[in-house]
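ok so for the tutorial part 2 we go from a plain amino acid sequence to predicted structure tokens. step 1 is just haveing the sequence, like this:
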Amino acid sequence: HRNAVSHVVKGMRTFKETSSEVLCTSVALFHNFGVMSDEDHQEACEIMIDQEGIKAIHEACEEWEDHVLLLTSAMHALFNFADNDEIRVEVVDVGLLDFVIDMLKRLDFEKNLMKTA
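step 2 — the prediction. this is what the tokens look like for a chain of 117 residues:
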């Protein structure tokens, strides 16, 4: 379904303040979306940008900035899209790169998140 990301984003925004479980599940879904076959990967990246998936990941992380499981899931999801130039630009444009760097400095007590990055 071509609009799946927008529906997930809508759910993330609806439950952003009340349910970290919804956010973790949504980010895990985006993680799986990012590992599509090579011929579908470019389209997946475009959909993530057009339907505000990257922005929603950032919003979720900001809302639950101390939720290590969510933050780690977000790192895994972003890793699956990091080979795409447009995604990298989007990550910078929405402020997610700065957030990730600050988060790593603040929460990486055991160096597990830095290894993921």
